[in-house]
Amino acid sequence: MAIGFFDKTIAGSIGLIPKPILRRVASRYVAGETLEHALAEAKRLNDEGYLVTMDLLGEAITTVEEAQEITGTYTRILDAIQQHGIRGNISVKPTAIGLASDAAELERNALVLVEHAARTGNFVRIDMEDSPTTDDTIAVVRRLRLAGHDNLGWVFQASLRRTPEDLEALGPLGPNLRLCKGVYLEPEELAWQSYEEVNTAYARLLEELLPRRDHYVGIATHDDPVVAHAEALIARLGLSPDQYEFQVLLGVRPELRQRLRDAGHRVRVYVPYGRAWHAYCVRRLEENPKFAGFVTRDVLRNPAMLLGDQSKR
Ligand SMILES: Cc1cc2nc3c(=O)[nH]c(=O)nc-3n(C[C@H](O)[C@H](O)[C@H](O)COP(=O)(O)OP(=O)(O)OC[C@H]3O[C@@H](n4cnc5c(N)ncnc54)[C@H](O)[C@@H]3O)c2cc1C
Predict the structure, then answer these.
(1) Mutate which of 54, 91, 130, 180 to test ligand 1's pocket (most atoms within 8 Å of Cβ)?
(2) Residues within 6 Å of ligand 1 by CB
(3) Phi-psi bin for 308: left (phi > 0), alpha (psi -120 to 50), beta?
(4) Residue 214 is a catalytic residue
(5) 78 — pLDDT class (breaks 50, 70, 90)
(6) CATH 3.20.20.220 domain residues, the chain
(7) Is the dihedral of CA 138, 143, 146, 150 positive or negative?
(8) What's the fold here for domain 34-273?
(9) Is 242 a catalytic residue?
C-alpha cells in the first residue's frame, strides 16, 4: 500500500493531537501503563485462547544505566509471567537493552534475560529495529544461540532485500523466528518499497521457511492476502498447529485474530505496555506515516474509541 498524502498529513500533525485524545486512541493498541495492566490484558487474552508476548515500551534509551534498568524490569516481567501462570513470553527491542550504546552492552543484557528466562521456563524474542541495527542484532543473537541458548529467537523483515541471504547464512541457527514485513521506512537500495514487492518477498520467504520442519515460524501480519497464502501453504504442507503460529498486534484487526483462532491456528498477541506510551506512539506515528493512516482510518470507522471505549476486541 503506497503512503498517501493523507497518511503523511496525519503523521505530521500527531504532535498537535491533545494527549487525552491520543491516550484514548492508544488504549486500543497499548495494554496500559503498568505491569498489572499488562498482566490483566494478557490473562484476558489467554482466557480467550491466545498466547501473548509482552513488550515494555521505552522512550529512546541512550545510557548503559537506562538499558540495565529496562533489563531489570524485563526480568520482573518474566517472574510475573511465571507467578501468574501467563501463557506468554517477552519481546525486547535491542536498543532498549543496550544497542543504543554498543553491541557488547546488548549482549550482556540479552544474556541476563535468556538466563533468567531459562530459569522461569520462558523464551526471549529480540525484535528487529531499523537497518543500522540489523548487523549487530543478528550478530548478538547468533553468538548467544551458538553458546547454546535455545530459548532465544529473532525477527526478520521481509521488506529488507538482505533477508533471504541472512536466513541462508544462519542455517540451523535460525529455528525460531518471527517473520514480519518490517515497520521502518528504509531507503530503496536496502528495502522493497511497494506493497506488491514486499508481499512477494514475504511469500517467497514463507515458502522457503515453512517446509523446514526444524523451524518454528511466527507469521506476524494482519494482511489478508499474506494470511491467505500462509494458510494455503500450511494446509498443503499438512503442518499441525504446534509447528507455527500467527502473531498480531494488540488492537489491530481483532476480527482477524478471532478467525485464525477459530480456524484452529495458534495465535500470539503482542502486548505493549508502559508509562512511555505517549512518546512511543508519537515517535512511531511520526516515523511511519502509513501507521498513522491505519490508526486514523480505524478511528473513523470506530469513533467510539474517542469516547473512551477501552475495548480491544
Ligand atoms: C506480532 C508482531 C510483531 C512485530 N514485530 C516487528 C519487529 O520486530 N520489527 C519490525 O520492523 N516490525 C515488526 N512488526 C510490524 C510489521 O513489520 C508491520 O509493520 C505491521 O505488522 C504491518 O504490516 P502487515 O503485515 O500487517 O501488513 P500491512 O499491509 O502493512 O497491513 C495490513 C492491514 O493491517 C492493518 N494494520 C496493520 N498495521 C496496523 C496498525 N499498526 N494499526 C492499525 N491497523 C494496522 C491495516 O488494516 C492494514 O491495511 C510486528 C508485527 C507484528 C504483528
Answers:
(1) 180
(2) 1, 127-128, 155, 157, 178, 180-184, 220-223, 226, 247-249, 252-253, 270, 291, 294-295, 298
(3) left
(4) no
(5) very high
(6) 34-273
(7) negative
(8) TIM Barrel (3.20.20)
(9) no
> What proportion of the chain, given as a percentage, has pLDDT over 70?
89
Q: What is the pLDDT of residues 226-263, one digit of tens each?
A: 999 999 999 999 999 999 999 999 999 999 999 999 99
- Average pLDDT over the chain reads 90
pLDDT for 270 equals 97
pTM: 0.92
**Amino acid present at 281:** C
299-308, long-range: CB < 8 A, 24+ apart = 299/25, 305/24, 305/25, 305/27, 305/28, 306/21, 306/24, 306/25, 307/24, 308/24
For residue 183, the ligand 1 atom closest to its alpha carbon is 19
